[in-house]
Sequence to fold (349 residues):
Amino acid sequence: MVCVLMLMLLGVPAGAAEEGGGKLNTSQIVVGHIKDSYEWHVTDIGEKHVIINLPVIVKSSTGWHVFSTARFAEEPDAKGYRQGPFGLAIATQGDNAGKVVEVAGGTEIRPFDISITKTVAVMFIDAALLLLCILIPARWYRRHKASDPAPGGFTGLVEMLVSYVEESIVKPGVGEGYEKYSPYLMTCFFFILTCNLMGVMPFPPGGGNVTGNIAVTFFLALCTFVVTQFSGSRHYWKDIFWPDVPLALKAFPLIPLIEFVGIFTKPFALMIRLFANMMAGHAIALSLTCIIFVVAVIGGPTFYGMTALSVLMSVFMMCLEFLVCFIQAMVFTMLSSIFIGLARARAEA
Fold:
């Protein structure tokens, strides 16, 4: 019972623990938790699935359609489709598994899809929560003077974080004129931190793997890329296309080529680092919990010993995840500020 409860708290259906003669399908559980979906599965109560139905917004060959995921069939048909309205369905196998498709003449066609998936819904919740976390302390500052005693409680915690990011990350990384980049870098830090912490929460409104979604980290890295390039000084571009190297190396543009490729590898590293670390953390935490069910068929002392070890390791991993949430937000902000600072560097006199 305790083992099943742990999986339920992690957002995993209890029924998914057994498949094919009582064997645990660990890959299905782990991947099912990490990947995005059109429905927000909360838990199972007996045979009943507790699901938050989300809006599907697609443009197919018959036009725009907006409807709830509740209109899709719960079980796939013989061809592997969860049939829905307007000739649309959710594929359960093949290249488009888990996606809304339009089946025409036996061919799957992906419609233009801007549906509110689980990741998008959690991201909206995280953004709203972040606004509250910033506006509440801002209200305190509007009502108090600079000479008043320092705030305590939640407002004091936010002030401490803002001061730390400003003085220890943004200012040293960007250098002179850092003030105009603080709003963007602060937004990156607090948005990533909020999404990371909410992702560790095993039940709604948390539980979404936002920063473990490569589309989200790609957009964040793209924003840093754009800010960096538009902040580039004349010296920055000169060092890329006409560096201070021997003339022979300028004639054979190996160094400019390497520097030009470096423009794109830096944001790529930002994207992959955040995505891989957060996705791996969720996968490891779930895998450790699944150990209980893997050894359940053995029984006896082995089962109880591995269960205790699994619980201890899971608790340790969840505590480590809280630390990783802060570290990854700090690293992304720090590297972004350094990249911007390097682009703004001027030639020494």
About this structure: The chain has a mean pLDDT of 81.
